[in-house]
Amino acid sequence: MTHLSLHDLERAARAVLPGEIWDFLAGGSGTEASLEANRAALERIFVIPRMLRDLTDATVEAEVLGRRAALPVAVAPVAYQRLFHPEGELAAARAARDAGVPYTICTLSSVPLEEIAAVGGRPWFQLYWLRDEKRSLELVRRAEEAGCEAIVFTVDVPWMGRRLRDMRNGFALPESVTAANFDAGAAAHRRTSGSSAVADHTAREFAAATWESVEAVRAQTNLPVVLKGILAVEDAARAVDAGVAGIVVSNHGGRQLDGAVPGAEMLGEIVDAVSGGCEVLLDGGIRSGGDILKALALGASAVLVGRPVMWGLASAGQDGARQALDLLAVELRNALGLAGCDSASAARRLNTRVTRYG
């Protein structure tokens, strides 16, 4: 079947995934207000296109964390991808490699990080801060030794938000899917009515990261460190002072604090606040090349895309994940050209308006 948009892939994935696994992927926390707001915020942003520009040498390539990428896109970290397809992270990482974009390996990957990194391409490693600091820093060391190019330190998960879909489903991991990067015991597999076993597991394993944690990670590695989950201008400014290479403006896809502001709402202010001191990326709600254009126009150097790649993975494995990225490339090329931009960097000179229609 030909898929013409990411929403087509979403429908295909929903048709094949069991209901509780779909809810684990699609759901947010609480009333899911922040989940819905991520889309609403992007839909309120409109770009003012420029005309009479030479598009002869137009490109969708971009520089992301100091290296060229085929798109200003990285695959976001998503846990337990073998829930969605038997090859899980390996298939998604191959798709990202072939599409020429970075792939972020999750701490909670269902394949060991070394095996995923061995796929090649541009692997990044996403770090959750564990109660045992030594285990956290050991993951950083392993990632660097495996050839990862960056550490994406998620700072907004001292524990998982209350994801009511998972709690109502009594969601637990099947025995065939595990946290492959460390011994997690049986907690994530223990099904209990009215409770999420995955949340119970992370409550035992995770700890609140602090600025001292950021310094410990930076001291452990020569890789660039990116902080994911920044929404406050004050935190963005402090991140620059802490010497990080980048920040990801994100409310964790609406899966942590329900009621947290959408990243797209804060992006422009944060770009102004960091004033070039580090790269700024946007995560949350990206569903088209037009959304990427909006993020670029607001000053982002790139975006992270998670759920849509998983839709492709669920519907058709590696080929489906690659199709999701290819659709973004086609749509971004179209959006850039129609906005009068010959590159991602040119899009950062566009003006935007926030407007309510309907």
UniProtKB/TrEMBL annotation:
Positions bound to glyoxylate: 128, 163, 252, 255
Residues reported to bind FMN: 77-79, 126, 154, 228, 250, 283-287, 306-307
Pfam family membership, one: FMN_dh
Record has Flavoprotein as a keyword: yes
Annotated active site: 252
Keyword field contains Flavoprotein: yes
Requisite cofactors: FMN
InterPro entries: Aldolase_TIM (IPR013785), Alpha-hydoxy_acid_DH_FMN (IPR012133), FMN-dep_DH (IPR000262), FMN_HAD (IPR037396), FMN_hydac_DH_AS (IPR008259)
UniProt domain FMN hydroxy acid dehydrogenase: residue ranges: 1-357
Keywords of this entry: Flavoprotein, FMN, Oxidoreductase
CDD domains hit by this protein: alpha_hydroxyacid_oxid_FMN
Molecular function via GO: FMN binding; oxidoreductase activity, acting on CH-OH group of donors
Similarity comment: family membership: Belongs to the FMN-dependent alpha-hydroxy acid dehydrogenase family.
Name the record gives this protein: Alpha-hydroxy-acid oxidizing enzyme
Natural source organism: Amycolatopsis thailandensis
